[in-house]
């Protein structure tokens, strides 16, 4: 296994959008009994404290970029960035005692008060809620409690949301022109330029557009139009597939929907050529040489110049 890089299905715009919708059905109108942070390094804010969430009621769930935003009636927001390996796991019953702070994948635990119906019927109290987990050696998950989501720096610096009505082809062209000669793979992933797209969906968008990951961002209008159409189509279809899928199944659904990402060695669904992989840093990307690079394989060393932020 020496040196092999494993594909990780990082939550991106479609999965976080569907996750917010799934949690909305479970959390709206529910009161928080308590919030326990077990991985202290994951908590990025201290004022207000997590204790300020105790006794509040959920009023909304949403998404900003790759961030999950959970709002409560006191005006506070619980903002979670799931990073590469984080996830939300719904819990139907009371949790088992934790082994200790910082051990295992558990980063935080939200416990809910019983719904009013349970109180009225004398049902067993509470126990349900959700866990915030991260299956990774290097912990990057981030939890914030803030007065407004824009108090989170990685939200305040986000680029435009690519599925909003205002993200027109003209606005997309301006983003690409500003990026100049930067490679398009990195531009699509740069959260300061466009929000919510990560490694997997940038692969899928570029494959749908039949464009090399190393293509300069500044490009002729016909190329801009083709890439814009691919971006909107890939993300829209991914959101539609993810909606209604339970949180526990969203990552598996994402993998199944990929055409080239994570499919090294398989046949391209468009032309039948073998999907190729480029390894860089601690990640990978996949592409079809016939569809995207005129049949020319890409060198791994080139992508070392792709500098992006989460």
Automatic annotation (TrEMBL):
The lineage of its organism: Bacteria, Bacillati, Actinomycetota, Actinomycetes, Micrococcales. GO terms for biological process: base-excision repair. This is DNA-(Apurinic or apyrimidinic site) lyase /Formamidopyrimidine-DNA glycosylase. GO terms for molecular function: 8-oxo-7,8-dihydroguanine DNA N-glycosylase activity; damaged DNA binding; DNA-(apurinic or apyrimidinic site) endonuclease activity; lyase activity; zinc ion binding. InterPro entries: FPG_cat, FPG_N, H2TH_FPG, Ribosomal_uS13-like_H2TH, Znf_DNA_glyclase/AP_lyase. It comes from Agrococcus baldri. Pfam families: Fapy_DNA_glyco, H2TH. Residues 11-104 form the Formamidopyrimidine-DNA glycosylase catalytic domain. It catalyses: Hydrolysis of DNA containing ring-opened 7-methylguanine residues, releasing 2,6-diamino-4-hydroxy-5-(N-methyl)formamidopyrimidine. It comes from the Bacteria. SUPFAM superfamilies: Glucocorticoid receptor-like (DNA-binding domain), N-terminal domain of MutM-like DNA repair proteins, S13-like H2TH domain. The keyword Nucleus does not apply. Residues 259-293 form the FPG-type domain. PROSITE patterns: FPG_CAT, ZF_FPG_2. Keywords: DNA damage, DNA repair, DNA-binding, Glycosidase, Hydrolase, Lyase, Metal-binding, Multifunctional enzyme, Zinc, Zinc-finger. Belongs to the FPG family.
